[in-house]
Amino acid sequence: MSEYLHKSHNVTVLMYHMVFPAKYRKVIFDGEVDGELKAVFLYIEKRYQMNFLEIGSDKDHVHFLIQSVPTYSVTKIVTIIKSISAREVFRRCPQVKKQIWGGELWTDGYYASTVSKHGNEEVISKYVKEQGSEYQKIYSNYQLSLF
């Protein structure tokens, strides 16, 4: 479950839904590879300031729900996850390297989307738009009473 990350000058809840397809969309994520991937992600979680809230793999791609700190850009998160997981999966499951020619586990592309703990885009948009509206009503009523 996500939690507020408290740093010296900020409090954040930054979550991302990411999808990484396997190179050439090869069907490589079986039970063994899936288990090794999850172990690698736990290692990444301990070493870097990331929290894998959910991990789900299909036969040819993997979905993540990741929480991270604002000092990591989306590109940095992707680079860390892809490079370490590829190296470790090839080391722990050599049969995967034989299935994928070229020595790359992941495609170059990825999908990333922000996820909110407090509502969807419509709810947040309305909340932001209405900020200060109570103040504006009081201020305009005050101005009218002066004249």
Task: Describe the structure in your own words.
- With 147 residues, the protein is α+β, with helices and mostly antiparallel strands.
- It has one domain (5-115): Transposase IS200-like (Alpha-Beta Plaits).
- The chain is 44% helix and 22% strand.
- The chain has five helices and six strands.
- It has helices spanning 31-47, 74-92, 94-99, 121-129, 133-146, and strands at residues 5-6, 11-12, 14-21, 50-57, 61-68, 111-115.
- The strands form two sheets. It has a four-stranded antiparallel beta sheet, with helices on one face. Strands 1-2 form a two-stranded antiparallel sheet.
- Strand 4 and strand 5 form a beta hairpin.
- The longest helix has 19 residues, at 74-92.
- The radius of gyration is 22 Å and the shape is elongated.
- The mean pLDDT is 87.
Brief overview:
With 147 residues, the protein is an alpha+beta fold. The chain is built from five helices and six strands, in the order βββαββααβαα. The protein has one domain: 2-Layer Sandwich (Alpha-Beta Plaits), CATH 3.30.70.1290.
Q: Count of DSSP E strands?
A: 6
The assigned CATH architecture is 2-Layer Sandwich
Q: Give the biggest sheet.
A: 4 strands, antiparallel
CATH topology: Alpha-Beta Plaits
Task: Write the topology of this structure.
Blueprint: E1 5-6, E2 11-12, E3 14-21, H1 31-47, E4 50-57, E5 61-68, H2 74-92, H3 94-99, E6 111-115, H4 121-129, H5 133-146
Antiparallel strand pairs: 1-2, 3-5, 3-6, 4-5
Helix pairs in contact: 1-2
